[in-house]
Amino acid sequence: MGSLGAPSSSLRRYLVPTGVTQPTLTGSDWRYAAMHFPGMVAGAVGRRPDQSTAPFEGKLRRSPYGSRTFQEGVRRAKEASQRRQNRKRKRHSRSPGGKKAARLRAGQSRKTDDSESSAHDLDSVHDRWDTSDEEDVPPPATTAGVDSEAFSDVFPGLAPADAVLEVMCRAASLSGKLSGDNRAEQAHQTDDEATSIALEAKEFILRYVAVLFGPLHTPKAHRLASHFLAELLDRGNITEADTSINEGLHGRCKAMYERSNKHVSTITAQMMRSEQTLACVLAEAASERKEDDAVRGQAEAGEAAAKSVGGMPAAVVVVDADVAVPDGQVPPADESGTSGGESVGRGEAHGAERGWTGGGQGGGSRPCGLSAVVRVRGRRSSVAELSTMEGGALAGLGATVEADDGQMVYVTNSMPFMATFEWGAPAVKQRLCAARSNHGKPFYDFLRFTDGSAATGFSYGRALLAINGVDGVARRGVVVQRLVLTDYNRKCVRTRFGDTHLRWDMDEETSFPRLAFVPLDDVQRLELIEPDFASLCARHGLFATPSNSPNTAEERALQRWFVNNFYAWTSAKLKEL
Predict the structure, then answer these.
(1) pLDDT for 465-480, tens place per residue?
(2) Domain count, the chain
(3) Fewest CB atoms less than 10 Å from the CB: which of 185, 190, 194, 275?
């Protein structure tokens, strides 16, 4: 394993400290792990070329488990040495005065040593290699490895580390196409698409993997390379699923079997009769429950109408901090420490019980022009106090949210929203986190949001604050650090596979990334954005991460990020994870 950065003190630690139990990937977990492989191997995995001046983590070991060219050299040296020993034995056995030769000519037999027999077999196989002791043994033609001609044809101009990264990108891309990732719902594959995927799978196994890692002689590799098109045409679209759904239905069958008398001739009829009885019981229970709910709903509606006074609306939700909501706007509510629509629905459902009647539990009179006063759970902090947090990253918070230093901001740790997808998949509920401490560690999500000033119509950023209101006025949104596109590099492997290369939009006044306030309605979805570990390791060594790198203005200007294009936000699957 080579590194692009400065040498480290020890290679024995690798990337995981000793004693740390790593999770085991089983079943479909590998399918979700493949999309993270490009970020894991970038700049870290690859054979160090001969006579390379690149830094190396640790001492170079020469062992049978080293590079392919070293293994081939060791094998050829052993074969040449064995052939020389065989030729010496033959010359000695043909000498006329040798006692062993005389006894053998007389018809006597002796037990042949296993090593001599195996050496003789090896020599007979390599007769074309017979040369004198002084001649050099010509190396066989190699079809795989970083030193072969095929490597130069398949990976032109790429270093071994970049070749490994390209293979991992192809594996992640192929996995996503097979599983229907990030496509419109009910999107069906055509015959042309199936043919294209099958050819890509065949090329991946027989060309890229075979050249870089050597040929694979396994049943799975053979099926993927040779029989995948027939499988697609026979079964149609591939749906991600496992046996847990069917196995979950076995419990009912086992219960029916236990209630039978186990008689061979009637057990099938007994189990079928049990299934029909169960269906009838469940149908009657559902009908009775529906009738009870209807009666209960009518009674609650009558009680609510009786308790209402003067037709005043009842929409007061009692939580923590008063926030005024103008007429015509939906008041923000609370959901386990965040704002959302669940508490609003709860307040409307129980409005008669918790409503304000002028002298009730709401207390006092309501200002004219306000339809409700909602209390939103959150931390109340002044703009001046928040501006000093995060090491100065929020220095421009007042100008961003258009508030003075003395005004109060209501901050939450997370905020739910409905995520939309540009490929036409149905919207799903996601939760955006911006917490200084989540299980003892900071947790800041990356997001994609609508931006009219961008040429693409959207931009990327990292959430620093989730806000419900500012100075008594409801404003649901996120304060983000902006990310912008960096210069295009045609040699970048991840960029060629669709990943977007980003950098911080630096603010010269604060020497931190520029801040922007994004309304919650403009948030499109979360985004998986990973550090560019290749450039990071080139500056600080193989074990460098954003958390242990220096937090300086120069380092922030050099930081680069990748949008992981392989992540499966939507997929053709039977159940959610």
Answers:
(1) 999 988 878 889 999 9
(2) 3
(3) 190
**For helices 228-235 and 191-203, angle between their N-to-C axes, nearest 10 degrees:** 150
CB 417 within 8 A of CB 523: yes
Is 323 a domain residue? yes
Measured CA angle at 398 (ends 392, 401), to 5 deg: 120
Number of Cβ within a 10 Å radius of residue 432: 24
Q: Are residues 419 and 502 in the same domain?
A: yes
| 57-67 per-position pLDDT tens digit | 555 444 444 55
- The answer on 323 and 415 residing in a single domain is no
Map residue 516 onto helix, strand or coil: strand
The arithmetic mean of pLDDT across residues 418-430, rounded, is 92
Q: What's the mean pLDDT when you consider all of the chain?
A: 74
Q: Which of 97, 129, 161 is the last residue of a domain?
A: 129
Contact between 390 and 464 (Cβ < 8 Å): yes
Six-digit token pair at 362?
Answer: 């709401």
Tell me the residue ranges of DSSP E strands in 303-377: 321-326, 333-334, 339-340, 370-376
Residue span of the structural domain in which 499 resides: 379-527
Element (H, E) at 245: helix 244-248
Residue 224 included in any domain? no
Give the Cα separation of 250 and 504 in Å (integer). Answer: 54
Same domain, 384 and 456: yes
What pLDDT digit, counting tens, does each position of 245-264 carry?
Answer: 777 778 878 888 888 888 88
- pLDDT above 90 covers a percentage of the chain that reads 26
Q: What is the pLDDT of residue 88?
A: 81
Neighbours of 332 (CB within 10 A): 28
In a shared domain, residues 357 and 384: no
Tens-place pLDDT, residues 74-106:
778 888 888 888 888 877 766 555 544 444 444
Shared-domain flag, residues 369 and 444:
no
Beta-sheet strands, E only, within 195-252: none
Whether the pLDDT of residue 500 is over 90: the answer is: yes
- The answer to whether the beta carbons of residues 3 and 537 sit under 8 Å apart is yes
Max CA pair span of the chain: 132
Instruction: Looking at the structure, tell me whether residues 404 and 513 fall in a common domain.
Output: yes
Contact 276, 324 (CB under 8 A): no
Structure tokens at 509: 């006044």
Q: Name which of 349-363, 411-425, 465-479, 525-539 the model is least confident about.
A: 349-363
Question: At 261, is the secondary structure helix, strand, or coil?
Answer: coil
503 and 389 fall within a common domain: yes
For residue 546, tell me if it sits in a domain: no
Confidence tier at 131 by pLDDT (50, 70, 90) = very low
User: Residue-wise over 293-319: b if at least 16 C-beta within 10 A, else e?
Assistant: eeeeeeeeeeebeeeeeeeeebbbbee
411 and 482 both lie in a single domain: yes
Burial class (CB in 10 A: 0-12, 13-18, 19+), 90: exposed
Instruction: Supply the pLDDT for residue 430.
Output: 95
pLDDT of residue 24: 65
Q: Residue 174 domain-assigned?
A: no
* Edge-to-edge order in the sheet of strand 441-444: 414-419, 428-438, 441-444
For the chain, state the CA radius of gyration: 35
Beta bridge partners of 460: 448, 483
- Between CA 43 and CA 158 the distance in angstroms is 12
